Amino acid sequence: MKQIFAPAVAVVCALGTLAAPVAAQAKAFTQITFGVDATYPPFESLSPSGAFQGFDIDLGKAICAELKVKCVFVSQSFDGIIPALQARKFDAILSSMTVTPERAKQINFSSEMYNEPTSLVEKKGAGLEPTAASLKGKNVGVEAGTIQETYAKTYWQPQGVNVISYQGQDQVYADLLSGRLDASLQDSVEADYGFLKTPKGADYQFGGNVTYDPKDVLGSYIAIGVRKDEPTLLKKIDWAIAELHKNGTYNKIEAKYFNFDVYGTQPAATTAPAAAAPAASAPAAQ
Amino acid sequence: MFNLAGYGPQLFSGMVTTIELSVLSLVVSFVIGLLGASAKLSKSRPMRGVATVYTTIIRGVPDLVLMLLIFYSLQIWLNDFSDYLNSLQGSFTFAFPLDPFTSGVITLGFIYGAYFTETFRGAFLAVPKGQLEAARAFGMRPKQVFRRILFPQMMRYALPGIGNNWQVILKATALVSLIGLSDVVKAAQAAGEATFRTFFFIVVAGAVYLVLTTVSNGVLILLERKYSVGVRKAAL
Amino acid sequence: MIDILQNYWQALLYSDGYGVTGLAMTLWLLVLSCAIGFCLALPLAVLRNARNPVLWFPVWLYTFIFRGTPLYVQLLLIYSGIYGLDFVHHTAPLADFFRSGLNCTILSFGLNTGAYTTEIFAGAIKETSHGEVDAGLAMGMSRVTLYRRIIIPAALRRALPAYSNEVILMLHATTLAFTATVPDILKVANDAYSATYAPFDCFGIAALIYLCVSFTLIFLFRRTERRYLAFLSP
Predict the structure, then answer these.
(1) Contact, B131 vs B154, CB < 8 A?
(2) pTM of the model
(3) Residue C40 touches partner B, C-beta closer than 8 Å
(4) Contact A4 B41 (CB under 8 A)
(5) What is the fold, at CATH topology level, of the domain defined by A31-115+220-257?
């Protein structure tokens, strides 16, 4: 059988060049590859033709324009996005990722992109509140890897709430619509613009914002994530973000998507639950 | 009823991706299978041992687990390797980016190489030894023996197994959508969720696969007929 | 690796404190799907060998569709597709059944393995030697008795190697269950990976668990083969 060895090994070596080295001369900075979980409209999603679109995508393109480099977007499910960044599948995470102390241990974050609270979404008239007592025995959907998943598993699951994780936010809504879930937990603005204001979300409403967070699992603002061994890239991205604010590009892009200021720390009135829900005041001590 | 709501192009390119992935994986696993079969049939114990460990592990571990293992770990190892290369010298920056498609090809090729090893091993053994001896007696060199006598006859015995494995590979490509590849399944899911007609679009995806497997079956029957020229089938 | 094992061994094996997960769930899926598949396949295999097209055509269609499409597509169809249909939504027992991810998973796995098993058993039944059938008829057996005492036991014996292969493949297929939110071994391993960023450790442990289960199954099947196919041994 030796006769087939030589040609076979040659073929295997030839195939090895599929993973051909991208030999860049002297580390020239010509493009940024962003990892995106494109299931989160209006921040990042895929159009019917398969192209990336959304607020984050537009901001990413603007950052690349400021830095005069090419922009490449790569799909990656959210629960594997930090390991994928560490494994150098892309240069930065641009996926509505919230800065939390846990995550900051693994990667570095840029300056703020925008900010939004977390809220519950439920069917109109369901009367559920984002508390363990109200949701006991109910099915709550979250996207795997998000702060909302951590929140639900930390505070609600031990109290008897069924927390179900999904690979993408679109799957959460699919099961919410089909009735498999009683409620879902996600970023407010995403829920508002990406679901409730769309025809699909016509029968659904907010169930209230989450305010109880003694262990600070919900973190602070949303930013771009980069590896800890890439300080130059981080500086460049921070500079670009500052430039976008200075020259008004940020506000222009923001106005395209939202009628309020997403950058401020207290985004808006859209987070108030609809009239039908009972008093959604801050929950009593849990 | 058959309105594809603008997702037609995405579904079509997904189908093309599926076919490309299957064909490339078939080629890789074919080559690995030939190597593995010759290792299993070789006289050296260590070679046989390595090949046996390889086929045993692959057939004992699910494809999806292997796929995830290879997709994530391989990239990390390649990164470590490129770090090492970069530390050896300073002018070039090596990077080995692995997109889902390449990962899929490597993984599926690696996995189904084990199945092909078994197929080819059986096929090699099925060729009557007398023919090989006669060929050598005629003074043919080993490469000529392989090319003229062993390989064509081996292919006849291997064809059903190859056909089987091809069908399995074709269906296994659906799993690659779970590591992010935009194939026909992913396109169907996206279309279904956007238009609320998940049932319809998944049926479309299923129909695509059905068409591909049926066409493959037809091609296989033709190939079998070509390679079985002159062989009398048992009268049933 | 050790701390992953320490933190997750319970979830990987039987429970994460809130429900059945891991190995227990995987084995449960395997046993139920194979049971459904077996019970489906036996009558369908008999029908598949009928001469009347009205009898064998539907069975052929069923195996053609379920063997020609990937299991993942079938699972998606039952989990997302069927539950999205309006009439399922509005019929209470159907809606309740399809709401549970576990039910959808078991149904689709059962149907899939049923199709493959039908073909395996049908092939084995077809290989029954004519002499046995003649002898049975000569003894005055009715068709039902003929099947019950002669054809089916012999066919099952012949089908054993191929069926054992199918069961192992079904074990591998259970890894798809996590896409329907069923917490099997792979889901726990995936969660461990998201938390620890150590893919080789997490998925390696999962692979080892599957390897052990596969070996156990192969061993059990070999024992069964040795007992029931003793007449074939050299």
Answers:
(1) no
(2) 0.82
(3) no
(4) no
(5) D-Maltodextrin-Binding Protein; domain 2 (3.40.190)
